[in-house]
């Protein structure tokens, strides 16, 4: 028997969350049985467990878009018993049972062997948020936005994707401007490597189609008016990498910065990102992440603390990354 969070849909279409005892026979019959050590709480998980958006497609569901653990059985030739593995996205916690559980049974097509530099817990401090931050940094590099091109704006900077983006960009030599709604966290952002910190309210006002050129690149985790402002202030030839919607999924901009300044907008999807690119991202994380800084942004919770933390996350009250120790009482 093992413990897992179970989301169920009730007849009146609300959903319930409980921690239940399950047996291995309850799990889906997939290729790889994993003893889960850690999962994480991402923004999407918070939307799922609070039922704020229809993230969960099948009920009952074990939520959790990330997991890290040890292979206990495998019919996939690429993985053997004892391998330490991690999985991000790929429908976990949305269409197939996810990581907020002491056991999981998954397909092997997106599974990654944990790089030797990391413990299971460190990979979950990174989680989907950090792997997405790395995908965003890779996108800036592929668009030839090198550190000499100028400052990079990171929005939602104290959040999971934001914090790890700041950390990675600083390590790679970029000048980082962090936009945050929590100005009490200036020292936190400086400790991660931000050189300049701005109030996100200044980016939340309506803007002209073209504003002063400021940023060579942008990693945007919030969408909406902030993304529109960012577009209006990207320098000629710059690139915005867009991954989130914490402010909203609207995009109130014009074509002007694209056709007059030749800027590019690049979207990130971490969920079904091809295996090759995932592997590249995890190899680069192993090379580029500062483990001390990573430790400093991590907090550990148990399965029973997930719901309260999810509510706080959606209220924008969380900074850094929340790791779930699925074995913690
Ligand atoms: P977090 O909750 O950790 O961080 C989000 C941050 O956004 C907050 O900490 C806050 O930062 C800022 N924020 C919150 N509410 C608002 C608001 N109303 N207006 C403006 N800013 C706000 O989430 P994650 O970092 O894990 O994820 C960020 C976004 O990226 C989410 O929308 C998530 O769904 C998306 N995402 C997308 C992925 C993909 O594959 N495309 C993968 C991973 C995440 P501050 O106070 O510093 O401004």
Shape: globular
CATH H-level superfamily title of the largest domain: Medium-chain alcohol dehydrogenases, catalytic domain
- Rounded mean pLDDT is 97
The radius of gyration computed from the alpha-carbon positions, rounded to a whole number of angstroms, is: 20 Å
Number of domains: 2
Structural class estimated from helices and strands: alpha/beta
Order of helices and strands: EEEHEEEEHEHEHEEHEHEHHEHE
CATH architecture type of the largest domain: Alpha-Beta Complex
**Spatial gap, N to C terminus:** 15 Å
Bound molecules: NADPH dihydro-nicotinamide-adenine-dinucleotide phosphate
Describe the largest sheet.
7 strands, mixed
Helices, by number, come to 9
Task: Assess the beta-strand content as a share of residues.
Answer: 25-35%
**pLDDT < 50 stretches:** none
Supply the CATH class of the largest domain: Alpha Beta
CATH topology of the largest domain: Quinone Oxidoreductase, Chain A, domain 1
User: How many E-type strands?
Assistant: 15
Helix content: 25-40%
List the keywords.
single chain; alpha/beta; Quinone Oxidoreductase, Chain A, domain 1; Rossmann fold; 2 domains; six-stranded parallel sheet; 15 strands
What does this structure look like?
The chain has 9 helices and 15 strands. The model has no long low-confidence stretch (mean pLDDT 97). Helix 1 (43-50) crosses helix 9 (306-314). The protein folds into 2 domains: 2-114 and 297-325, Medium-chain alcohol dehydrogenases, catalytic domain (Quinone Oxidoreductase, Chain A, domain 1); 128-267, 3-Layer(aba) Sandwich (Rossmann fold). Strands 3, 4, 5, 6, 7, 14 and 15 form a 7-stranded mixed β-sheet that branches. It is of the alpha/beta class. It has helices spanning 43-50, 120-142, 160-171, 186-192, 224-232, 256-261, 275-288, 291-296, 306-314; strands at residues 2-9, 15-22, 32-41, 66-74, 84-88, 103-106, 112-113, 152-154, 176-180, 196-199, 215-220, 234-242, 264-267, 298-301, 321-325. Bound molecules: NADPH dihydro-nicotinamide-adenine-dinucleotide phosphate. NADPH dihydro-nicotinamide-adenine-dinucleotide phosphate (NDP) binds at residues 42-44, 128-129, 132, 156-162, 180-182, 200, 221-222, 226, 243-247, 268-271, 313, 316, 318.
